[in-house]
Amino acid sequence: MDDLEQFRSEVRQWLEANCPESQRQPITAAEQFWGGRRASFPSPDAQLWFERMRDKGWIVPEWPTEYGGGGVSERHGKIIKEEMKRIKARTPLYGLGLWMLGPALLEYGNEQQKQQHLRAIVNGEARWAQGYSEPGAGSDLASLQTAAEDKGDHFLVNGSKIWTTAADKCDWIFCLVRTDTTVRKQEGISFLLIDMDSPGITTTPIALISGESEFCQTFFDNVKVPKENLVGELNKGWSVAKALLVHERKLMSEMGSDSPRKVLTPNEAALQYLEFENGRIADARLRSDLVDYNMQMHAIGLTHFRTFEERQAGVRSAAPLIMKYVGTEAEQTKSELLLAILGSRGLGWEGEGFSDEEIDTLRLWAMSKAMTIAGGSSEIQLNVIAKNVLGLPQPAGD
Protein backbone atom coordinates (compact mmCIF):
# COMPACT_ATOMS: atom_id res chain seq x y z
CA MET A 1 0.00 0.00 0.00
CA ASP A 2 1.49 3.37 -1.03
CA ASP A 3 1.53 6.42 1.22
CA LEU A 4 -1.59 7.98 -0.26
CA GLU A 5 -3.63 4.81 0.07
CA GLN A 6 -2.38 4.39 3.62
CA PHE A 7 -3.45 7.95 4.34
CA ARG A 8 -6.85 7.32 2.78
CA SER A 9 -7.31 4.27 4.97
CA GLU A 10 -6.44 6.25 8.09
CA VAL A 11 -8.80 9.09 7.10
CA ARG A 12 -11.61 6.63 6.47
CA GLN A 13 -11.13 5.00 9.85
CA TRP A 14 -11.00 8.34 11.66
CA LEU A 15 -14.13 9.67 9.98
CA GLU A 16 -16.07 6.50 10.69
CA ALA A 17 -15.10 6.71 14.36
CA ASN A 18 -15.60 10.47 14.82
CA CYS A 19 -18.39 11.73 12.57
CA PRO A 20 -21.75 11.45 14.39
CA GLU A 21 -24.50 9.75 12.44
CA SER A 22 -26.62 12.90 12.55
CA GLN A 23 -23.82 14.72 10.72
CA ARG A 24 -24.04 12.32 7.79
CA GLN A 25 -27.42 13.61 6.61
CA PRO A 26 -28.34 16.27 4.03
CA ILE A 27 -27.97 19.66 5.67
CA THR A 28 -30.50 22.50 5.77
CA ALA A 29 -29.64 26.19 5.81
CA ALA A 30 -30.67 26.41 9.48
CA GLU A 31 -28.18 23.65 10.33
CA GLN A 32 -25.16 25.30 8.74
CA PHE A 33 -22.59 26.68 11.21
CA TRP A 34 -20.91 29.89 10.03
CA GLY A 35 -19.14 30.82 13.26
CA GLY A 36 -18.72 34.32 14.64
CA ARG A 37 -19.13 36.18 17.90
CA ARG A 38 -22.91 35.76 17.95
CA ALA A 39 -23.07 32.26 16.50
CA SER A 40 -24.51 29.19 18.18
CA PHE A 41 -24.39 25.57 17.15
CA PRO A 42 -27.60 24.10 15.71
CA SER A 43 -27.17 20.93 17.79
CA PRO A 44 -24.78 19.25 20.27
CA ASP A 45 -23.69 16.83 17.53
CA ALA A 46 -22.86 19.72 15.20
CA GLN A 47 -20.67 21.21 17.92
CA LEU A 48 -19.00 17.87 18.62
CA TRP A 49 -18.29 17.31 14.91
CA PHE A 50 -16.87 20.81 14.51
CA GLU A 51 -14.63 20.47 17.57
CA ARG A 52 -13.29 17.11 16.45
CA MET A 53 -12.50 18.41 12.96
CA ARG A 54 -10.97 21.59 14.39
CA ASP A 55 -8.75 19.68 16.80
CA LYS A 56 -7.69 17.34 14.00
CA GLY A 57 -6.75 20.35 11.82
CA TRP A 58 -9.17 19.29 9.10
CA ILE A 59 -11.38 22.38 8.99
CA VAL A 60 -8.76 23.57 6.48
CA PRO A 61 -6.34 20.64 6.19
CA GLU A 62 -3.97 22.39 3.75
CA TRP A 63 -3.31 25.40 6.01
CA PRO A 64 -0.12 25.36 8.13
CA THR A 65 -0.52 23.84 11.60
CA GLU A 66 0.61 27.07 13.29
CA TYR A 67 -2.57 28.74 12.03
CA GLY A 68 -4.96 25.94 12.91
CA GLY A 69 -4.68 23.86 9.75
CA GLY A 70 -3.66 20.27 9.24
CA GLY A 71 -0.38 20.99 7.44
CA VAL A 72 -1.09 18.42 4.71
CA SER A 73 -0.56 18.68 0.97
CA GLU A 74 -3.32 19.56 -1.47
CA ARG A 75 -3.41 15.94 -2.60
CA HIS A 76 -3.91 14.73 0.97
CA GLY A 77 -6.54 17.42 1.51
CA LYS A 78 -8.38 16.17 -1.57
CA ILE A 79 -8.46 12.67 -0.06
CA ILE A 80 -10.02 14.06 3.14
CA LYS A 81 -12.74 15.80 1.10
CA GLU A 82 -13.38 12.65 -0.94
CA GLU A 83 -13.75 10.50 2.14
CA MET A 84 -16.06 13.04 3.79
CA LYS A 85 -18.18 13.02 0.65
CA ARG A 86 -18.22 9.21 0.63
CA ILE A 87 -19.97 9.05 4.01
CA LYS A 88 -21.98 12.24 3.29
CA ALA A 89 -20.31 14.05 6.19
CA ARG A 90 -21.54 17.60 6.66
CA THR A 91 -19.25 20.58 6.27
CA PRO A 92 -18.44 21.48 9.91
CA LEU A 93 -17.81 25.20 9.29
CA TYR A 94 -18.76 27.58 6.48
CA GLY A 95 -17.33 31.01 5.80
CA LEU A 96 -15.70 33.49 3.45
CA GLY A 97 -12.82 33.63 5.91
CA LEU A 98 -12.04 29.99 5.17
CA TRP A 99 -12.65 30.08 1.44
CA MET A 100 -11.36 33.50 0.41
CA LEU A 101 -9.69 35.72 3.00
CA GLY A 102 -7.60 32.99 4.63
CA PRO A 103 -5.72 32.00 1.46
CA ALA A 104 -5.12 35.69 0.66
CA LEU A 105 -3.74 36.37 4.16
CA LEU A 106 -1.44 33.35 3.88
CA GLU A 107 0.03 34.95 0.76
CA TYR A 108 -0.05 38.67 1.57
CA GLY A 109 -0.66 39.09 5.30
CA ASN A 110 2.10 39.85 7.78
CA GLU A 111 2.75 37.54 10.71
CA GLN A 112 0.75 39.63 13.17
CA GLN A 113 -2.29 39.55 10.86
CA LYS A 114 -1.99 35.81 10.34
CA GLN A 115 -1.73 35.14 14.06
CA GLN A 116 -4.67 37.42 14.85
CA HIS A 117 -7.10 36.28 12.17
CA LEU A 118 -6.37 32.83 10.75
CA ARG A 119 -6.81 30.78 13.90
CA ALA A 120 -9.89 32.84 14.84
CA ILE A 121 -11.38 31.84 11.47
CA VAL A 122 -10.59 28.16 11.96
CA ASN A 123 -11.94 28.25 15.52
CA GLY A 124 -15.23 29.69 14.32
CA GLU A 125 -14.67 32.83 16.39
CA ALA A 126 -14.88 35.34 13.52
CA ARG A 127 -17.25 35.54 10.57
CA TRP A 128 -16.15 37.62 7.59
CA ALA A 129 -17.98 39.65 4.93
CA GLN A 130 -16.58 40.79 1.60
CA GLY A 131 -16.48 44.51 0.80
CA TYR A 132 -15.77 44.67 -2.93
CA SER A 133 -18.73 45.77 -5.11
CA GLU A 134 -20.30 49.21 -4.83
CA PRO A 135 -23.47 50.71 -6.32
CA GLY A 136 -21.30 52.27 -9.05
CA ALA A 137 -18.57 49.63 -9.23
CA GLY A 138 -19.67 46.08 -9.94
CA SER A 139 -18.07 44.35 -12.90
CA ASP A 140 -15.81 47.40 -13.27
CA LEU A 141 -14.60 46.89 -9.71
CA ALA A 142 -11.51 49.08 -10.08
CA SER A 143 -13.81 52.13 -10.34
CA LEU A 144 -14.67 51.82 -6.63
CA GLN A 145 -15.00 55.08 -4.70
CA THR A 146 -15.13 54.09 -1.01
CA ALA A 147 -12.30 56.24 0.32
CA ALA A 148 -9.76 55.68 3.08
CA GLU A 149 -8.08 58.93 4.11
CA ASP A 150 -4.70 58.73 5.82
CA LYS A 151 -4.97 60.27 9.29
CA GLY A 152 -1.55 59.35 10.64
CA ASP A 153 -2.12 56.36 12.90
CA HIS A 154 -5.39 55.34 11.23
CA PHE A 155 -7.47 55.55 8.05
CA LEU A 156 -10.83 57.29 7.95
CA VAL A 157 -13.19 55.32 5.70
CA ASN A 158 -16.27 56.74 3.98
CA GLY A 159 -18.49 55.17 1.32
CA SER A 160 -20.62 52.09 0.83
CA LYS A 161 -20.42 48.50 -0.37
CA ILE A 162 -23.22 46.43 -1.85
CA TRP A 163 -24.02 42.72 -2.12
CA THR A 164 -22.09 42.16 1.11
CA THR A 165 -23.23 38.66 2.01
CA ALA A 166 -24.55 38.39 5.59
CA ALA A 167 -22.84 41.64 6.57
CA ASP A 168 -25.47 42.13 9.28
CA LYS A 169 -24.27 38.87 10.89
CA CYS A 170 -20.51 39.25 10.38
CA ASP A 171 -17.78 40.39 12.77
CA TRP A 172 -15.23 41.65 10.23
CA ILE A 173 -15.17 42.75 6.60
CA PHE A 174 -12.24 42.64 4.17
CA CYS A 175 -12.60 45.75 2.10
CA LEU A 176 -11.17 47.41 -1.01
CA VAL A 177 -10.80 51.17 -0.54
CA ARG A 178 -9.39 54.02 -2.58
CA THR A 179 -6.29 55.55 -1.05
CA ASP A 180 -4.98 57.50 -4.05
CA THR A 181 -7.11 59.34 -6.63
CA THR A 182 -4.19 60.74 -8.68
CA VAL A 183 -3.03 57.51 -10.34
CA ARG A 184 -4.45 54.85 -12.66
CA LYS A 185 -7.53 53.46 -10.92
CA GLN A 186 -6.07 50.00 -10.22
CA GLU A 187 -2.96 51.58 -8.67
CA GLY A 188 -4.76 53.64 -6.02
CA ILE A 189 -6.56 50.82 -4.20
CA SER A 190 -5.70 49.33 -0.79
CA PHE A 191 -6.95 46.24 1.08
CA LEU A 192 -8.22 46.82 4.63
CA LEU A 193 -9.53 44.58 7.41
CA ILE A 194 -12.34 46.36 9.28
CA ASP A 195 -14.06 45.37 12.50
CA MET A 196 -17.83 45.51 11.89
CA ASP A 197 -18.36 46.77 15.45
CA SER A 198 -16.48 49.97 14.60
CA PRO A 199 -18.55 53.16 15.12
CA GLY A 200 -19.96 54.48 11.85
CA ILE A 201 -20.79 51.14 10.19
CA THR A 202 -24.41 50.32 9.35
CA THR A 203 -25.95 47.55 7.24
CA THR A 204 -29.24 47.32 5.35
CA PRO A 205 -30.50 43.90 4.13
CA ILE A 206 -31.52 43.61 0.46
CA ALA A 207 -34.61 41.57 -0.43
CA LEU A 208 -33.98 39.09 -3.26
CA ILE A 209 -36.24 37.59 -5.91
CA SER A 210 -35.62 34.16 -4.35
CA GLY A 211 -37.45 35.30 -1.21
CA GLU A 212 -34.30 35.55 0.90
CA SER A 213 -32.24 38.50 2.14
CA GLU A 214 -28.71 37.19 2.46
CA PHE A 215 -27.17 40.31 0.92
CA CYS A 216 -26.75 43.74 2.47
CA GLN A 217 -25.62 47.23 1.61
CA THR A 218 -22.94 48.34 4.07
CA PHE A 219 -22.29 52.01 4.84
CA PHE A 220 -19.09 53.55 6.25
CA ASP A 221 -19.41 56.98 7.87
CA ASN A 222 -16.08 58.29 9.21
CA VAL A 223 -14.99 54.79 10.29
CA LYS A 224 -11.57 54.69 11.97
CA VAL A 225 -9.40 51.74 10.87
CA PRO A 226 -5.97 51.17 12.48
CA LYS A 227 -3.01 51.28 10.10
CA GLU A 228 -2.00 47.76 11.13
CA ASN A 229 -5.17 46.49 9.38
CA LEU A 230 -3.69 47.27 5.97
CA VAL A 231 -2.91 44.01 4.11
CA GLY A 232 0.06 44.25 1.77
CA GLU A 233 1.42 47.61 0.66
CA LEU A 234 -0.46 50.88 0.49
CA ASN A 235 -2.03 51.36 -2.95
CA LYS A 236 -1.14 47.76 -3.89
CA GLY A 237 -4.46 46.25 -2.84
CA TRP A 238 -5.43 45.35 -6.40
CA SER A 239 -2.86 42.53 -6.32
CA VAL A 240 -4.40 41.17 -3.11
CA ALA A 241 -7.88 41.58 -4.60
CA LYS A 242 -7.00 39.61 -7.72
CA ALA A 243 -5.45 36.80 -5.67
CA LEU A 244 -8.58 36.59 -3.53
CA LEU A 245 -10.82 36.60 -6.61
CA VAL A 246 -9.10 33.42 -7.80
CA HIS A 247 -10.43 31.68 -4.70
CA GLU A 248 -13.87 33.31 -5.04
CA ARG A 249 -14.18 32.19 -8.65
CA LYS A 250 -13.15 28.67 -7.71
CA LEU A 251 -15.87 28.73 -5.07
CA MET A 252 -18.40 30.01 -7.63
CA SER A 253 -17.41 27.28 -10.11
CA GLU A 254 -18.26 24.66 -7.49
CA MET A 255 -21.55 26.32 -6.49
CA GLY A 256 -24.30 23.82 -5.75
CA SER A 257 -22.01 20.99 -4.66
CA ASP A 258 -22.93 21.56 -0.99
CA SER A 259 -26.38 23.10 -1.29
CA PRO A 260 -28.72 22.96 1.72
CA ARG A 261 -31.72 23.01 -0.59
CA LYS A 262 -33.76 19.86 -1.18
CA VAL A 263 -33.31 19.85 -4.95
CA LEU A 264 -33.43 16.81 -7.20
CA THR A 265 -30.74 16.24 -9.79
CA PRO A 266 -31.96 16.47 -13.40
CA ASN A 267 -31.63 12.68 -13.73
CA GLU A 268 -33.69 12.09 -10.59
CA ALA A 269 -36.28 14.62 -11.70
CA ALA A 270 -36.57 12.98 -15.12
CA LEU A 271 -37.29 9.58 -13.56
CA GLN A 272 -39.90 11.10 -11.26
CA TYR A 273 -41.71 13.56 -13.54
CA LEU A 274 -41.32 12.54 -17.20
CA GLU A 275 -43.08 9.95 -19.32
CA PHE A 276 -41.06 7.11 -20.83
CA GLU A 277 -41.53 5.12 -24.01
CA ASN A 278 -39.60 1.91 -24.63
CA GLY A 279 -37.23 2.70 -21.79
CA ARG A 280 -36.35 6.25 -22.82
CA ILE A 281 -37.72 9.74 -22.22
CA ALA A 282 -40.68 10.31 -24.53
CA ASP A 283 -39.98 14.04 -25.04
CA ALA A 284 -37.12 14.10 -27.57
CA ARG A 285 -36.13 17.70 -26.79
CA LEU A 286 -35.86 17.08 -23.04
CA ARG A 287 -34.05 13.82 -23.71
CA SER A 288 -31.47 15.65 -25.80
CA ASP A 289 -31.12 18.50 -23.28
CA LEU A 290 -30.58 16.01 -20.44
CA VAL A 291 -27.89 14.18 -22.39
CA ASP A 292 -26.16 17.46 -23.22
CA TYR A 293 -26.21 18.49 -19.55
CA ASN A 294 -24.77 15.19 -18.35
CA MET A 295 -22.01 15.33 -20.95
CA GLN A 296 -21.20 18.89 -19.90
CA MET A 297 -21.01 17.98 -16.21
CA HIS A 298 -18.81 14.98 -16.97
CA ALA A 299 -16.45 17.23 -18.95
CA ILE A 300 -16.38 19.78 -16.11
CA GLY A 301 -15.57 17.04 -13.60
CA LEU A 302 -12.72 15.76 -15.78
CA THR A 303 -11.37 19.31 -16.18
CA HIS A 304 -11.39 19.88 -12.42
CA PHE A 305 -9.44 16.62 -12.01
CA ARG A 306 -7.01 17.59 -14.79
CA THR A 307 -6.27 21.00 -13.26
CA PHE A 308 -5.67 19.37 -9.90
CA GLU A 309 -3.21 16.90 -11.43
CA GLU A 310 -1.47 19.70 -13.33
CA ARG A 311 -1.01 21.69 -10.12
CA GLN A 312 0.50 18.66 -8.43
CA ALA A 313 2.94 18.26 -11.34
CA GLY A 314 3.87 21.95 -11.26
CA VAL A 315 2.32 22.60 -14.68
CA ARG A 316 0.80 26.02 -15.28
CA SER A 317 -2.62 25.66 -16.85
CA ALA A 318 -5.11 28.12 -18.26
CA ALA A 319 -8.02 25.84 -17.38
CA PRO A 320 -8.77 27.40 -13.95
CA LEU A 321 -9.47 30.73 -15.66
CA ILE A 322 -12.43 29.22 -17.51
CA MET A 323 -13.97 27.26 -14.63
CA LYS A 324 -15.89 30.10 -12.96
CA TYR A 325 -17.57 30.90 -16.28
CA VAL A 326 -18.23 27.27 -17.16
CA GLY A 327 -19.39 26.27 -13.66
CA THR A 328 -21.88 29.10 -13.13
CA GLU A 329 -23.29 28.81 -16.65
CA ALA A 330 -23.76 25.08 -16.02
CA GLU A 331 -25.61 25.82 -12.77
CA GLN A 332 -28.01 28.09 -14.66
CA THR A 333 -28.47 25.40 -17.31
CA LYS A 334 -29.28 22.91 -14.56
CA SER A 335 -31.92 25.19 -13.04
CA GLU A 336 -33.57 25.84 -16.42
CA LEU A 337 -33.54 22.11 -17.22
CA LEU A 338 -35.09 21.19 -13.88
CA LEU A 339 -37.97 23.61 -14.38
CA ALA A 340 -38.56 22.23 -17.88
CA ILE A 341 -38.65 18.68 -16.49
CA LEU A 342 -40.97 19.58 -13.59
CA GLY A 343 -43.41 21.42 -15.86
CA SER A 344 -46.33 22.85 -13.88
CA ARG A 345 -44.92 21.26 -10.72
CA GLY A 346 -42.03 23.71 -11.02
CA LEU A 347 -44.27 26.73 -10.49
CA GLY A 348 -44.72 26.32 -6.74
CA TRP A 349 -43.39 29.20 -4.67
CA GLU A 350 -45.04 28.20 -1.42
CA GLY A 351 -48.00 26.26 -0.04
CA GLU A 352 -48.93 22.68 0.81
CA GLY A 353 -49.71 21.79 -2.80
CA PHE A 354 -45.99 21.51 -3.63
CA SER A 355 -43.17 19.46 -2.15
CA ASP A 356 -40.09 21.03 -0.55
CA GLU A 357 -38.03 19.87 -3.53
CA GLU A 358 -40.38 21.57 -5.99
CA ILE A 359 -40.43 24.85 -4.05
CA ASP A 360 -36.67 24.86 -3.60
CA THR A 361 -36.14 24.12 -7.29
CA LEU A 362 -38.03 27.28 -8.29
CA ARG A 363 -36.33 29.43 -5.65
CA LEU A 364 -32.88 28.22 -6.69
CA TRP A 365 -33.76 28.93 -10.33
CA ALA A 366 -34.43 32.53 -9.30
CA MET A 367 -31.19 32.66 -7.31
CA SER A 368 -29.19 31.12 -10.17
CA LYS A 369 -29.62 34.33 -12.16
CA ALA A 370 -27.11 35.96 -9.82
CA MET A 371 -24.47 33.27 -10.25
CA THR A 372 -23.24 34.57 -13.60
CA ILE A 373 -22.91 38.06 -12.11
CA ALA A 374 -21.41 37.48 -8.63
CA GLY A 375 -17.65 37.07 -8.51
CA GLY A 376 -17.28 38.72 -11.92
CA SER A 377 -19.98 38.60 -14.58
CA SER A 378 -19.81 36.08 -17.42
CA GLU A 379 -19.02 38.94 -19.80
CA ILE A 380 -16.03 39.93 -17.66
CA GLN A 381 -14.94 36.30 -17.44
CA LEU A 382 -15.03 36.00 -21.22
CA ASN A 383 -12.83 39.11 -21.48
CA VAL A 384 -10.37 37.51 -19.03
CA ILE A 385 -10.34 34.30 -21.08
CA ALA A 386 -9.89 36.23 -24.33
CA LYS A 387 -6.92 38.15 -22.94
CA ASN A 388 -5.15 35.60 -20.75
CA VAL A 389 -5.98 32.30 -22.44
CA LEU A 390 -6.50 33.08 -26.11
CA GLY A 391 -4.16 36.06 -26.27
CA LEU A 392 -6.65 38.14 -28.26
CA PRO A 393 -6.00 41.88 -28.67
CA GLN A 394 -7.72 44.16 -26.17
CA PRO A 395 -9.69 47.32 -26.90
CA ALA A 396 -7.64 50.50 -26.96
CA GLY A 397 -7.14 51.96 -23.49
CA ASP A 398 -7.90 48.68 -21.65
Walk me through the structure.
With 398 residues, this protein is of the alpha+beta class. The protein folds into 3 domains: 92 residues, Butyryl-Coa Dehydrogenase, subunit A, domain 1 (Orthogonal Bundle), CATH 1.10.540; 109 residues, Butyryl-CoA Dehydrogenase, subunit A, domain 2; 135 residues, Up-down Bundle (Butyryl-CoA Dehydrogenase, subunit A, domain 3), CATH 1.20.140. The strands form 3 sheets. Strands 1-4-5-8 form a 4-stranded mixed sheet. It has a 4-stranded antiparallel sheet with strand order 2-3-7-6, with no helix packed on it. Strands 9-10 form a two-stranded antiparallel sheet. Helix 4 packs antiparallel against helix 6. The longest helix has 29 residues. The model has no long low-confidence stretch (mean pLDDT 89).
CATH topology of the largest domain: Butyryl-CoA Dehydrogenase, subunit A, domain 3
Task: Kindly report the spatial arrangement of strands forming the biggest sheet.
Answer: 1-4-5-8
By CATH's scheme, which homologous superfamily of the largest domain applies? Butyryl-CoA Dehydrogenase, subunit A, domain 3
Q: How many individual domains?
A: 3
Shape: globular
Q: Radius of gyration, Cα only, in angstroms?
A: 22 Å
CATH class of the largest domain: Mainly Alpha
What integer is the average pLDDT? 89
How large is the share of residues in beta strands? Answer: 5-15%
Please trace the helix and strand order, writing H or E for each element: HHHHHEEEEEEEEHHEEHHHH
Helix content: 40-55%
Taking the sheet with the most strands, its summary is: 4 strands, mixed
Number of strands: 10
Query: Which architecture of the largest domain does the CATH hierarchy give at level 2?
Result: Up-down Bundle
Taking pLDDT < 50 over at least 5 consecutive residues as the criterion, the unreliable ranges are none
- Which structural class best describes the helix and strand composition? alpha+beta
Span of the ends, CA to CA: 54 Å
Total helical elements: 11
